[in-house]
Amino acid sequence: MSTKHQMEQRQHCLAITKVEGIRTFLSGTLRLIHLLPSTAVQYLNYFRQEILLPVPPLPPPTTSTATGTTTAGTTTTSNTTTNNKYNHSGKATCSKEIKVGMRPRDFIQMGMALTAAVIILYIAINPPQRAWKEARKLRNFFGSSKQDQNFQETPKAIHYKCGLPKQCPLDHFAFHILSGAANVIGPKICFEDQIIISSAKNNIGAGLNIVLINGETGKTLKFDSFNMYSGKVEDLLKFMKDVKPGTIALVASFDDPGTKLTNEARDIFVKLGSSMIKSVGFRDSWVFAGAAGIAQNSPFEKHVKNEKEKNVYDGWPEIVEVSGCFPRKQ
């Protein structure tokens, strides 16, 4: 056998050893993960059959022939020799005489193949969200960048009651009152992070929308709306008649809050701490938060007049709102 052919046979045997080792590993892995989803098994079968292609057989060596000649009574006969390291089918066989070993490059290739198999298994077993979290943990273990540290140090948005910019003291109630927009969008009253009336709740009406709150417990006592354009002011007077000292009143206008307001009705709100109710008129915007028995004017009040030159809407002024922390009754 020629030296060139021996080297080819040696390389062929090395390739067979390397591929068979990887195939054996993958076959064992497939047996262990028979309970995995079928997609993962398909990936591994594809990797084993398509990526690790079978090693093509080594072509048999050429047959050398010697033709005998007769010289001076000596006869040289024809002799045909064939490499004994080939079987009857002409395929190469790896005899024990050839020392099969793995070079560093072979270890690297096998390591890459095993890494690819592990990655496929990990993706098949772990959903993308979990895999991302694990990757973040691994990155943090080896040390995160300054950008990541700055991102982690960014505080999450904090929600305060009724959308206030800060938290109220323990002895105060958070509230937010928003008037209606023209006669289209209704008002909204929030108290202690609970929306009591709004268009979404379908419990508002044109005129004055009033919510009464227990000043000690913060419990909603009752609420209603009173049409000050086509309704009866007597209904408003009856609703406000039994208000006890310390009761918190939250008021929001919608459409027209002042056409039928009488002096008697206005005086009720004056006693609650209003300083603007006397000037509330046709289609004005007005919001107010006060309490029965208050000794001074409430700071929680806003009023915008209906003026044609300044109106934001056609025939109505802009929306007004007021919010803050109302003191609890001691």
UniProtKB/TrEMBL annotation:
Q: Which Pfam families match?
A: ILEI
Name where it's found: Secreted
Question: According to the UniProt record, where is the region Disordered?
Answer: 59-88
UniProt KW keywords: Disulfide bond, Lectin, Membrane, Secreted, Signal, Transmembrane, Transmembrane helix
TM helices/strands, residue ranges: 107-125
Does the keyword Glycoprotein feature in the UniProt annotation? Answer: no
- The ILEI/PANDER domain extends over 207-293
Q: Which GO terms describe its cellular component?
A: extracellular region
Against PROSITE patterns, the record matches this protein to: GG_LECTIN
Chain intervals with Low complexity compositional bias: 63-83
Q: Which domain of life is it from?
A: Eukaryota
> What are the protein's GO molecular function terms?
carbohydrate binding
Instruction: State the PANTHER family in the record.
Output: UNCHARACTERIZED FAM3
> Which family does the entry's similarity section mention?
Belongs to the FAM3 family.
Protein name (database record): ILEI/PANDER domain-containing protein
What is the protein's species of origin? Answer: Anguilla anguilla
Record lineage? Eukaryota, Metazoa, Chordata, Craniata, Vertebrata
